[in-house]
Amino acid sequence: MGTTTFIEGSIAVAKTIGVCRPQVISAYPITPQTHIVEHLSELVAEGELKTEYVNVESEHSAASVVLGASATGARAYTATTSQGFLLMIEVLFNIAGMRLPIIMTCVNRAVSAPINIWNDQQDSLTARDSGWIQLYAEDNQEASDMHLQAFKIAENKDIMLPVMVCMDGFVLTHSFEPIELISQEDADKFLPPYKPQYYLNPKNPLSFGTMVGPDGYMETRYFLEKTMRDSQQVISDVAAEFHNQFGRFHGGLIDTYKVEDATHVFVAMGSVIGTLKDIVDEQRAKGQKIGVLKIRSYRPFPKDEIYKALNHVREIIVLEKAISLGYGGILANEIKSVFYGKPKTPKINGYIIGLGGRDITIDTIHHVIKDAVNTSFEEKFIGLNEALIK
Amino acid sequence: MTTTTVTGPKEQACDTLLAAGHTACTGCGEALAAKLVLGAAGRDIIVTDATGCLEVFTTRFPQSSWEVPFIHSLFENSAAVASGVEAALKALGRQNEAKVIAQGGDGGTADIGLQALSGMLERGHNVLYVCYDNEAYMNTGVQRSGLTPFDCMTTTSPYGEYSWGNKHNKKDMPGIAAAHGIPYVATASVAFPKDIENKVKKALTIPGPKYLQIHSPCPLGWRSNPHLTIKVAKLAIETGLYPVFEMENGKITKVRKVKTPKTPVEEYLKIQGRFAHLFKSPKGQEEIQKIQEIADRNIEKYGLA
């Protein structure tokens, strides 16, 4: 078994990436992703990790380097956040379209303007349609474990899609927690070496990234969508397999906390789940039947699992750290779509919280609960500074 | 496999690793240049390519002209993708399996792809970068690039009452590449196929990053007669407008000399529609004189006389 260490989230993730034996790593520094890639470069410098570490001149090239490496048959990893993530987006769509099982850590951070280095989830949400599987971690143990799972999901020969592990910037990356680190031996037992079916080599000269016209392009998108749906089973299976080997279970596509008998349920993703669990315990002590549903796999979006878990509840309160400007809460509207055409529709309220690192306190959540009980089918910002919007 | 052995220029046999049947225009300099590069490099290579004519006319699904492993990703990242390919070969212990060649047009190399190329050169990847220079964005309909020559007419640098065409001088891309301190920089032209082959072969024996820029006429964009591609390319060199040289470790080691007496630039300009506006009025002669001065400066700078 691994050892429990009091360690920063970024370092735990870097050490887990290390035992996944990536063969090529390429990244460009951007706060608050830096500690992850710095620690990986230290592992390489100390000879603890045998990998080609390519320091590039931009995130666009970081993503392009791992693209080329993966197409050549190497296990490849990158990490970024915010503006760097946005600069990568062109390549991210390309990676997914080329079915390359690259793993990326997206450290979640707000996007400019105004420039803001603190946490929300607008960056990764902006690439929700890119064809990357997106997993969101609640705490650092999950963030760390999720990377090992991510490689196994991505490299499944029936999937072959890139996976993005999303973890809240600073809130997770710069927090110290006791983490059970995964040993090399255990990682090797869980994750076999990457053996791609197709890769660039002169013995079998294939053409990658060719031009596809109106006669075939739609089918490539059809297969991406089909595989995304198929990947739901694989994500669940890999979580179960991980549970079996390591004794830790963070949820499959979703995770639930005291939802079974709940009348009111919070839905969210990322580190806010921990705060919500505390609120649930507090409210349950007062007799309120309340629970939390964690979205672990945002893409693919597990509609059926969510419906199964929530079809008995009276009220759903969606909390999210991103917004589709001109439309409203992205997650709130997707949760609404889960219930379209179903016999019973719970009341669903959506709240935009914690943008640009605005603190989400116990009081913030109390405010949300009070608002949700008194209004219906609303979407609004919570935690605004009234003096600034007068 | 559809490889055949054909008789090439000067009766040299070469492999056609770029299979026939692609959709390049008649007289395309780029198609010829790419065929020569592959022929010289042989089968044990992995090639990357930027978005552009070359990728479009060779890879229309479900067909591909590439008889060697090929990857196209985006417009600006051919050099970065090649860096990743090379890093992976090293990581996997397969570096003796294949040489890596990155390709791009002039826009993909000197404009949108310049940053990625600079990164690749600076990091010392063992990659030969080949720029097929046809002096404008041909794939999108002949718009000017950083390698479009002075006073050249393109669809975004048109000739008009207030314009003689492209206002700017051609960017010194080989100089920029050389400034990275790389071991080998060269220019070549489809006018001299054997020279391209020799330079590719030589470059591939040198470890580290190499840069080769090949002048590749585009009859469509240059408004030149397709059967004159080689003649046009030859005149670019003979006038001094396209210096052909080799630079090893920062020093010019070989140049293709121009004939004496030198060929006036009019000989080159007058057979191309992209310069036709210069011959329409007496004032155009002043512009031609400016172009002659560019040629003269090249002859002096590179020692072409």
Give a quick precis of the structure.
The complex is a heterodimer of chains A (390) and B (305). Chain A is α/β, with parallel strands linked by helices. Chain A has helices spanning 9-19, 34-45, 59-71, 82-97, 122-125, 140-154, 184-190, 217-246, 272-285, 303-310, 330-338, 362-374, 386-389; strands spanning 4-8, 24-27, 52-55, 76-80, 103-108, 133-136, 163-168, 176-180, 207-208, 254-257, 264-268, 290-295, 297-299, 315-320, 347-352, 379-381.
Q: Could you walk me through the main structural features you see in this protein, from its secondary elements to its overall organization?
A:
The complex is a heterodimer of chains A (390) and B (305). Chain A is α/β, with parallel strands linked by helices and 390 residues long. Chain A folds into 2 domains: 244 residues, Rossmann fold; 136 residues, Rossmann fold, CATH 3.40.50.920. Chain A has 13 helices and 16 strands. In chain A, strands 3-2-4-5-7-6-13 form a 7-stranded mixed sheet, sandwiched between helices. Chain A has a 6-stranded mixed sheet with strand order 10-12-11-14-15-16, with helices on both faces. In chain A, helix 1 packs parallel to helix 6. In chain A, 54% of the residues are buried. Chain B has 305 residues and is α/β, with parallel strands linked by helices. Chain B starts with a strand and ends with a helix. In chain B, the strands form 3 sheets. Chain B has an 8-stranded mixed sheet, sandwiched between helices. In chain B, strands 1-2 form a two-stranded antiparallel ribbon. In chain B, strands 7-8 form a two-stranded antiparallel sheet. In chain B, helix 1 packs across helix 7 and helix 3 runs parallel beside helix 5. Chain B has a single domain, classed as 3-Layer(aba) Sandwich (Rossmann fold), CATH 3.40.50. In chain B, 35% of the residues lie in helices and 17% in strands. Classes of the chains: A alpha/beta (390), B alpha/beta (305). At the A-B interface, strand 3, helix 3, helix 4 and strand 9 of A face strand 3, strand 4, helix 3 and helix 5 of B.
